[in-house]
Design goal:
Elements: H1 4-14, E1 27-28, H2 33-48, E2 54-65, E3 75-91, E4 96-101, E5 104-111, H3 124-133, E6 146-152, H4 162-177, H5 184-198, H6 206-213, E7 218-223, E8 228-233, E9 241-247, H7 255-273, H8 286-291, H9 296-320, H10 328-344, H11 351-362, E10 367-371, E11 378-384, H12 388-402, E12 408-412, E13 419-420
Parallel strand pairs: 1-12, 4-6
Antiparallel strand pairs: 2-3, 2-13, 3-6, 3-7, 4-5, 7-8, 9-11, 9-12, 10-11
The structure holds adenosine-5'-diphosphate and magnesium ion.
Residues 161, 163-164, 207 line the site of magnesium ion.
């Protein structure tokens, strides 16, 4: 099909004017789950020379709204994405833990009884840590030997939680192989413990909850105070809508320090307001509360956390009273407000995140925001399904204009949490 733009470009070429070609964009949907599980099984056979006992998988996630509120006992609304991590695994009559990944050359082969924090380097720590964290559920007499082949589809380090997908797929596999019979929440906890206590990374638990507990066609309302959850209808596809994820591929070098500083600011705000956490503050009194905080920076940090928790409540109320389609304008406005608050009050965005969000809005997205911890990572845009491609193209063009490296695009369907595939 020749479009008016093509014709214009052709005219421009004839007249000798150079027109920048819009960058080609690919929206990557996850490969078929059944085929991907079969592929993981084949990789296992190739690596270990025999067939696995089964294949288990767990998804990555995006947070729809509720950012930087988890450590203040806040509320958030993640959803599992269709990109998953697969773990093909078998129990062996030994105590050797042997791990491989299709995404990384590092191989682990060690005595499972010798697992302890700090003993395992690199990615295998996330998997070995799950076995270590599940120990209280393992009866003393049984051997713990197993072979695991990992094959992940979630891009690493893009803020889509490949680490939780990895841990939670391992937790499903280990639970089944050792017949532990743990509850989903116990596997969530084991995955969190693996990441924080064994691998030494910091995580609030949102990622692991979403990866294990999500339901297809739903987002997951998560109360970070007590980790209670409930599914919230978020079936975009049937309503002609889509969530476009843009991995900006921006990197930032002092992320840990920035997170620590934001946490400290929000703790200071809670202290000044005389509450244990900002969740306890009465948002109906927002102006009075803020007026009581002298430090201008701490005041803005508090305003973000307080208004963001309220926005999650507002989204939840909208989705309780109608479909995404019926409330698409209000939902989009709440996503926009969340981003603006993270940019101006919480100051965790970088230029790539702001440019991606601005370009998405200008190209007709209902709403757009950064998702995840910020300082790089990904954005989401709520769009009409048929607008996903042009909105992605607009973001890609904006990145070219700003001289940023090319972003990557994913379409996120609200997917099922961790489980067995084969
Ligand atoms: P994110 O969770 O946002 O993707 P993290 O830094 O928390 O970013 O986790 C990324 C790390 O998780 C990688 O550096 C790697 O150690 C590990 N990881 C995740 N998926 C895999 C995989 N399929 N194979 C090997 N390592 C993986
Ligand atoms: Mg992670």
């Amino acid at each position: 099909m020749t479009t008016a733009a093509d014709a214009g470009a052709a005219d421009a070429r004839h007249s000798g004017i150079t027109v920048a070609e819009p960058p080609a964009v690919t929206l990557s949907a996850a490969p078929d789950r059944g085929e991907a599980a079969a592929h993981a099984e084949a990789l296992f056979v190739e690596a270990f020379g025999y067939a696995p006992d089964g294949v288990w998988s767990a998804p990555g996630r995006v947070n729809i709204i509720g950012e930087h509120v988890d450590y203040q006992d806040g509320l958030c609304l993640p959803m599992a994405i269709s990109h998953r991590c697969f773990a093909a695994a078998a129990r062996t009559p030994t105590d050797r833990l042997r791990l491989r990944s299709a995404q990384d050359d590092l191989i682990l082969d060690l005595d499972a009884r010798e697992l302890e924090p700090g003993a395992v380097e690199g990615w295998p720590a996330y998997v070995a840590g799950v076995l270590w964290a599940l120990r209280p559920h393992i009866s003393g007499a049984s051997t713990q030997g197993m072979d695991i082949m990992i094959d992940g589809q979630v891009p690493l380090g893009a803020g889509l939680s490949s680490s939780a997908a990895l841990e939670c797929s391992a937790a499903e596999a280990i639970d089944a192989l050792l017949s532990l019979g743990t509850e989903p929440l116990q596997r969530v906890q084991a995955a969190i413990t693996a990441e924080t206590d064994f691998a030494g990374a910091s995580t609030g638990g949102l990622d692991q909850s979403a990866s294990v507990l999500s339901r297809a066609g739903h987002a997951l309302f998560l109360d970070c105070r007590d980790f209670s959850t409930r599914p919230v209808p978020w079936d975009l596809a049937s309503q002609g809508l889509a969530l476009l994820i843009t991995d900006t591929r921006a990197e930032h070098s002092h992320v840990d320090g920035e997170y620590t500083a934001r946490r400290a600011d929000s703790e200071r705000a809670a202290e000044l307001l005389g509450v244990d956490t900002l969740r306890d503050a009465d948002v109906a009194q927002l102006q009075e509360l803020l007026a009581g905080i002298d430090d201008e920076v701490v005041r803005r940090r508090a305003r973000h956390v307080l208004t963001e928790i309220q926005r999650v409540k507002d989204v939840d109320a909208l989705l309780a009273s109608g479909t995404v389609r019926e409330h698409v304008t209000e939902l989009g406005a709440l996503l926009d407000a969340s981003h603006d608050s993270l940019r101006d009050d919480y100051e965790v965005t970088v230029a790539q995140l702001d440019v991606a969000v601005d370009a998405a809005r200008a190209a007709g997205a209902h709403g757009a925001r950064m998702t995840g911890g910020g300082f790089g990572g990904s954005t989401i845009a709520l769009v009409e399904a048929e607008q996903a491609q042009p909105v992605a193209a607009a973001i890609a063009s904006a990145f070219v204009e700003h001289g940023f490296s090319a972003p990557e695009f994913f379409l996120a369907l609200p997917s099922e949490g961790a489980g067995q595939d084969r």
